[in-house]
Amino acid sequence: MENAKEIRARIKSIRDTEKITNAMYMIASSKMRKAKNDLDKTRPYFDALGREIKRVFRTVEGVESRYFYPDDASKLRNGTYGLLVITTDKGLAGAYNKSVIKEAERLLSEHPDTKLFVVGEYGRRYFLKQNRAVERSFLYTAQNPTMDRAREISYYLLDLFDRGELTKIFVVYSDLKNSLTTKAVSTRLLPFHHHNNYPAHSNKNEPEVSVPFEFYPSVEAVVNSVVKSWLSGYIYSALVDSFCSEQSARMTAMSVANKNAEKLLELLTVQYNLLRQEAITEEITEVISGAKSLKRKRKREVLQP
């Protein structure tokens, strides 16, 4: 059983750790609010782009684009897929990374001929330990998602897609449902289905087209240009969404750590008080015993002739 000194040292250590977890909670909360604000400002624009792409294909007949599935299903290609996995650079975020990795592993098992593209140090190290080749790791992106870095990723993937090295491109990331709930999701970025509602967060109540669209120089050129912009925006949204989810998961983990620390401190305080009470009782008993012994000794001295 620990003595009072050891328990006192543990209490001090836990309180010091609790200060760190409280600080991490506050930092994560501040980062999440800022990132969520950025996401809310940018997502509507790229959602609108996705809706317009869908409206083009619903109103214009005979549009052909390499970014869309052909009407003839026999022309579908089943070659190499590309999988963009968005993880964190740091730990202490609960089951956040594990959920993303689990979803990525599911996709890899369904189609082994898949090239991996990883955002985040956690994912890079995980796949290296699993002896899975990582085609490219995008460094310093998870902790600082910007539109420039999203364009860098989208242009790199688009180049491989345009050259025929990739036939499909998927992304796996964590979606922030609300301030307390996150979910790992996977989305096919390319190619599109003609009648799909492409953005995950788009509004289904789109207005009907009353006037035919006019395209310059051609509908194919317009679609190809818009798709590139939308893809960059979607990847940016996924990066920021993942960053928000990471901060939310870290807040939850730090909150649980603080609650556990409080319970442990309460238990240790009770143990410490019991040991102190035992020590005080023992000291009082020793004092009383000593006093009685001295009293008996004095009586014997008085009775001796």
What does this structure look like?
The chain is of the alpha/beta class. It folds into two domains: 4-16 and 258-303, no CATH class; 27-254, Pyruvate Kinase, Chain: A, domain 1 (3-Layer(aba) Sandwich), CATH 3.40.1380.10. It is 59% helix and 11% strand. Strands 3-2-1-4-5 form a five-stranded mixed beta sheet, sandwiched between helices. The radius of gyration is 32 Å and the shape is elongated. The model is unreliable at 197-204 (pLDDT under 50).
Residues in helices, as a percent range: 55-70%
- Terminal CA distance reads 52 Å
Strand adjacency order, main sheet: 3-2-1-4-5
Which structural category fits the helices and strands? alpha/beta
Q: For the report, how would you describe the main beta sheet?
A: 5 strands, mixed
Helix-strand pattern? HEHEHEHEEH
Briefly, what CATH class of the largest domain? Alpha Beta
What would you report as the Rg, rounded to the nearest angstrom?
32 Å
Topology:
Layout: H1 4-59, E1 81-86, H2 96-110, E2 114-119, H3 121-129, E3 134-138, H4 147-162, E4 168-176, E5 182-190, H5 219-303
Parallel strand pairs: 1-2, 1-4, 2-3
Antiparallel strand pairs: 4-5
Describe the structure concisely.
It is built from five helices and five strands.
What are its keywords?
5 helices, five-stranded mixed β-sheet, single chain, 2 domains
